[in-house]
């Protein structure tokens, strides 16, 4: 019995140790970049900066934050995310609700189509040409419209709507609710947890989108954050920015790049605790269906 | 061809990783520690590939931490991002860094659904932790793993345009150019619509065939399937 306990203890210890190591490896890149971004260029050049900043200076940050175009793309991104999420939520819930009703006969067929669209990915070029012919090329709406319904999110909502007790809806009907009133006054308020989750799925997706902007947006004024970021990270751009500084002891390409990367990561980091809670729920709701 | 190799590597190395991680997290008894590990490992899932590529370029650069650590052991710095030989592994590793933690969620949910009485019975019969894991946890986890595997096979050729595009440099085109990035360059940048459409349809059809046939196979072998 004693032996078993010893084995148990060492097992636990090794396991915890490995997981601690794993967590450190997960965090190291972020830590290193954070340290680089607030260190002086000279120290970075000398290779003194690893996980702890050396000669702390905010010069790189000031430089990045004074880039007007970066703030502009932040604005574009925020606008796309807010408007996009709103449209997505309205359209998705209006679509999912009738599909969750068994009285609605074509529902099965439509769901099959949705699942097919989920598995069979549209090839890029026909997709591009179709959306272009809708006049979305170089338009702000290219950042919003193509995301309106994501099959996976639709299925999460659908699953949730199905669980709403029938009695509640019937009670509503007796009180004189029409279909729309039933949806907005009874079903949606009850489904709040699922709505929040799906809304966050959409919001993060639109915030992080890269594929659509790179296909459709050619106009630098419409660059969303991720594209602006890529443009800045591509070495040439920052090198020219850095070379405008006489004082290379404070700023160099690496400190600038680190500050840019971190700048883009901060919004996500800020809402992360909130995101995590709801995303985990969403991932489970989605897996139930399978 | 690159697509097949990178897809294969991702499946081979990237797929088992969340399973191992989930098993390890599941064995932790201290709730606070468990939460912390989970919080840290889910985090990269929310970053865009542009951010992750930026991080990757930085830590693998000449003065980045990876080369710095190598220099402690007296090794010369390597410009990882410009060497063709490393590219595929970088794709696989960054993929793991970003998604491994996230991949554990579904598995952990399945693990917490296992009846604790089974473990008690095993302990009475004298099974240690490893034996419990091998004879109880793994077999009961299998259905979930099979389903995840099927989903992975279906997206076998769909490596992720954003990831590869952001990590790719002209120096690594030869080993890293996947169907998606090629189609993007040929089709949208250069305007060869018909050729790249054909390639794209080919890719989608292969994906569909793969997922349908694997599903059939798995239904025959294990009785588990997506539909």
UniProtKB/TrEMBL annotation, chain A:
Subcellular location: Cell membrane
One Pfam short name: BPD_transp_1
One of the GO biological process terms: transmembrane transport
GO CC, any one term: plasma membrane
Membrane topology type: Multi-pass membrane protein
Parts of the chain that traverse the membrane: 12-35, 70-97, 109-128, 140-161, 182-207, 256-275
Alphabetized UniProt keyword annotations: Cell membrane, Membrane, Transmembrane, Transmembrane helix, Transport
Residue span(s) of domain ABC transmembrane type-1: 70-275
CDD domains (alphabetical): TM_PBP2
InterPro entries: MetI-like (IPR000515), MetI-like_sf (IPR035906)
Family label: Belongs to the binding-protein-dependent transport system permease family.
PANTHER family in UniProt: ABC TRANSPORTER PERMEASE PROTEIN MG189-RELATED-RELATED, POLYGALACTURONAN_RHAMNOGALACTURONAN TRANSPORT SYSTEM PERMEASE PROTEIN YTCP
Name of the protein this chain belongs to: Carbohydrate ABC transporter permease
